[in-house]
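We were asked to recover a plausible sequence for a given structure. The inputs and outputs are reproduced exactly as logged, with field labels preserved.

PROBLEM: sequence recovery
POSITIONS: 526
GIVEN STRUCTURE:
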């Protein structure tokens, strides 16, 4: 099979050429200019369409994203506690629960948290869990706490996070690993219809031009990290999406070692391990160098979710075993320490060629630390859609001086770093790769705000953004067999309806996916 176009994207030159791509079985066997088109072959011509390596979402939470796509979780937002709670009566009941996702406590004000009482008032008899938009906090009603047998005496011990309390006891709000401990219990029964739900979600990903995802642990400490390769294995015969998964790094690595040796196929692959150095700015759990702009208490800088020396040891141990490690770092102190530790590890335990560690998010970036991102075995994994999540509250969360230095994507590239793109779904809902490119190139929301763009000096070219969402994302997953169009690569391709490099960022919001190829087979056509 041969496909042709006037515009084929080359990730090395960041430009296009008129040419052909020959596919045999599941791999690209030949790429060349249109003048060298082989004769006597079946040819599909895409004309003015742009052929690119298929998009790779390097950072998602796969199981929860599948549930969200299949309406087992329902988006719930609001600017106040009462507004969020007003949606609870309309939430469907799934396996006996009402499950919503998407609220942010920071929308209610600084250091303002909801309580179970507001949900109890309108829904006392059905258990309710409302997952925060950043997936670091859950909010339960009393019936939910009863179902989970939650009391102050039964809270999980030895893990990070907080069980919020008031004079009357637990308020129903839990953060970090404590939250994920309970969330995993709520969602576990929903695995039963995974095959059909996976198929539906995979079709949606293919429709967006996505054929590979990186599935990352949702917690670094809770017993269940919500990464389920055993479950994903059940759909491998029908898959049209590659899954590269990253369980939480543990003290006892026996189970991880088993997964590393067991899952090595082209479609289901152990990619390495994940850990969380800090939390998020909205709850002041991101680890900062200096106090928050409006501190909750004297010396409020957030802090590490696991001790600094333990994180350093985890990195060294993982890399020594040959496992890439990906670390959640949002605050500037967490970022700085992560950069230092990876640099140290590269000297003492270098990974084999083609494998890369990754820092995730890097939101509150100290400009003096930007030069440290240029490391041979490090990818900077970012989510452009996060730019616009509560952007109006950034000054209040971290202070205007730090806010203006956040998300410095252009500076990262100028320092020679490799960028990889993802969405962090379901932290953001329904974001397509073309929207991700738009967020990176325009630095504003699809509604056009803020008009001048958020830190507009950090806008990327569309070509740079496209590389980050293809080759860069492949490097984030330590995959050398996808992400570029070249002989020997797996034939995962996407065709857009125009050459996006010839237009401005606004055109990205009008661009359509014409076709998606997975393993050399057409899985979506429009």
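RECOVERED SEQUENCE:
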């Amino acid at each position: 099979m041969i496909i042709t176009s006037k515009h084929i994207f080359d990730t090395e030159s960041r430009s296009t050429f008129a040419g052909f791509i020959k596919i045999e079985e599941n791999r690209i066997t030949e790429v060349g200019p249109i003048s060298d088109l082989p004769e006597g072959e079946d040819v599909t011509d895409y004309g003015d369409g742009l052929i690119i390596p298929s998009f790779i979402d390097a950072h998602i939470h796969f199981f929860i994203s599948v549930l969200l796509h299949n309406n087992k979780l329902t988006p719930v937002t609001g600017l106040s506690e009462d507004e969020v709670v007003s949606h609870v009566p309309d939430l469907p009941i799934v396996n006996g629960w009402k499950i919503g996702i998407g609220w942010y406590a920071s929308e209610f004000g600084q250091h303002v948290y909801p309580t179970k009482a507001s949900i109890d008032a309108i829904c006392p008899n059905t258990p309710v869990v409302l997952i925060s938009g950043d997936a670091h906090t859950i909010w339960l009603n009393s019936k939910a706490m009863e179902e989970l047998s939650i009391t102050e005496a039964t809270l999980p011990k030895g893990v990070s996070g907080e069980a919020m309390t008031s004079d009357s006891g637990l308020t129903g709000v839990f953060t970090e690993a404590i939250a994920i401990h309970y969330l995993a219990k709520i969602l576990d029964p929903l695995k039963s219809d995974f095959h059909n739900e996976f198929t539906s979600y995979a079709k949606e990903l293919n429709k967006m031009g996505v054929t590979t995802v990186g599935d990352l642990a949702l917690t670094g400490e809770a017993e269940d990290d919500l990464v389920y390769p055993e479950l994903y294995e059940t759909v491998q015969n029908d898959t049209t999406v590659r899954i590269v998964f990253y369980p939480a790094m543990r003290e006892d690595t026996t189970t991880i070692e088993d997964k590393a040796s067991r899952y090595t196929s082209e479609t289901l692959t152990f990619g390495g391990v994940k850990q969380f150095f800090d939390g998020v700015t909205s709850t002041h759990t991101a680890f900062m160098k200096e106090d928050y702009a409006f501190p909750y208490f004297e010396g409020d800088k957030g802090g590490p979710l696991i001790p600094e020396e333990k994180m350093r040891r985890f990195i060294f141990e993982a890399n020594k075993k040959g496992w890439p490690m990906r670390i959640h770092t949002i605050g500037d102190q967490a970022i700085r320490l992560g950069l230092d530790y990876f640099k140290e590890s590269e000297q003492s335990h270098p990974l084999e060629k083609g494998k890369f560690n990754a820092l995730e998010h890097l939101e509150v970036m100290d400009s003096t630390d930007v030069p440290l991102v240029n490391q041979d075995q490090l990818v900077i994994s970012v989510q452009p859609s996060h730019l616009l999540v509560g952007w109006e509250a950034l000054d209040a969360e971290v202070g205007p001086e730090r806010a203006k230095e956040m998300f410095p994507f252009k500076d990262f590239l100028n320092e020679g770093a490799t960028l990889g793109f993802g969405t962090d779904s379901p932290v953001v809902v329904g974001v397509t790769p073309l929207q991700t490119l738009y967020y990176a190139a325009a630095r504003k929301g699809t509604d056009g705000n803020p008009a001048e763009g958020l830190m507009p000096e950090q806008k990327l070219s569309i070509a740079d953004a496209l590389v980050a969402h293809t080759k860069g994302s492949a490097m984030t997953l330590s995959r050398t067999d996808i992400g570029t169009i070249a002989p020997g690569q797996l034939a995962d391709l996407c065709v857009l309806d125009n050459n996006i490099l010839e237009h401005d960022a606004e055109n990205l919001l009008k661009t359509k996916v014409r076709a998606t190829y997975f393993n050399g087979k057409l899985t979506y056509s429009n």
